[in-house]
Amino acid sequence: MAWLLTGQALADALQVKVAEPYVEIHTGPGRGYPVFHVVERHAPLTLIRERAGWVQVHTPRGRTGWVPRDALALTLDGTGQAPVMEDGLKRFNGGQWQLSVLMGELEGARSLSAAAGYQFTDNLLAEVMFSQASGPYANNRLLDINVQHQLFPQWRVSPYVMLGTGKIHIEPRATLVQPDNRDERLVHVGGGVRIGLSRGFVLRAEYRNYVLFTQEDDNRNLEEWKLGFAVLF
């Protein structure tokens, strides 16, 4: 695959022109994502940003997809020389927002979670999550901040580990004597997997182990499983 840079290459227009007979555009940043569009020779492409060795491009027909970054190493600028790509690519190496909705189980109670995160690098994502868990003995509301590390971000099925902290509000249920509501601090560790389904759409599954620092100095451990979807933009 070869490209021909137009204008002043990445420094200005961030555009390239296809020099091979065609270029295959993938739905996501990885070879596991399907090809959904083909761009023919001489068609211009606009470079948007890079992620995990793949470059997001925009086609003349208004479609956005991904091509391998190593293809850009074969480009030529207006002088016929191979340009230095590293500095130029850093100019559009922006972060990525993620919104998630997950359902699961927290110690026998059904849970529903909503989260917003920002991916600072290919591997590192920070997230804020709010969860509601209702069970036969208590209603719980959790708010936590966590940091996730993706081990292999270039994979379509990408595992990650996490570490976080937050608070839980517990409203016990009782038929005779109503106990007081409680607010406890917590920390958690966990892990999960992200599976790319289509452009900007990810299936997400994870496990968390919480440690609650109770007011009675009797720390408790809670386990939670979650499954849901994330939208990237």
Helices and strands in order, then pairings?
Layout: E1 3-5, E2 15-18, E3 22-26, E4 35-40, E5 44-51, E6 54-58, E7 64-68, H1 85-90, E8 96-106, E9 109-119, E10 124-134, E11 138-150, E12 157-172, E13 182-198, E14 201-213, E15 220-232
Antiparallel strand pairs: 1-2, 2-5, 3-4, 5-6, 6-7, 8-9, 8-15, 9-10, 10-11, 11-12, 12-13, 13-14, 14-15
Protein described:
This is SH3b domain-containing protein. It comes from Alcanivorax hongdengensis A-11-3. InterPro entries: Beta-barrel_OMP, OMP/PagP_B-barrel, SH3-like_bac-type. Residues 110-232 form the Outer membrane protein beta-barrel domain. Keywords: Signal. It contains 1 helix and 15 strands. Helices cover 3% and strands 61% of the residues. It has 2 domains: 3-90, SH3 type barrels; 96-232, Porin (Beta Barrel). With 233 residues, it is an all-beta fold. A hairpin with a 6-residue loop joins strand 11 (138-150) and strand 12 (157-172). The chain has an 8-stranded antiparallel beta barrel. A 5-stranded antiparallel beta sheet has the order 1-2-5-6-7, with no helix packed on it. It is elongated. The protein has one helix spanning 85-90, and strands at residues 3-5, 15-18, 22-26, 35-40, 44-51, 54-58, 64-68, 96-106, 109-119, 124-134, 138-150, 157-172, 182-198, 201-213, 220-232.
Summarize the structure.
The protein is built from 1 helix and 15 strands, in the order βββββββαββββββββ.
In total, the number of domains comes to 2
Number of strands: 15
Nearest-angstrom radius of gyration? 23 Å
How many separate helices?
1
Main beta-sheet strand count, sense and barrel state: 8 strands, antiparallel, barrel
**Amount of helix:** under 10%
Q: List the secondary-structure elements in sequence, H or E.
A: EEEEEEEHEEEEEEEE
Gross morphology is elongated
Strand order of the largest sheet: 8-9-10-11-12-13-14-15
What structural category do the secondary elements indicate? mainly beta
Subunit arrangement of the protein: single chain
The CATH architecture of the largest domain is: Beta Barrel
* CATH structural class of the largest domain: Mainly Beta
Distance between the termini: 28 Å
Within the CATH hierarchy, at the fold level, what is the topology of the largest domain?
Porin
The whole-number mean of residue pLDDT values reads 80
Strand content: over 45%
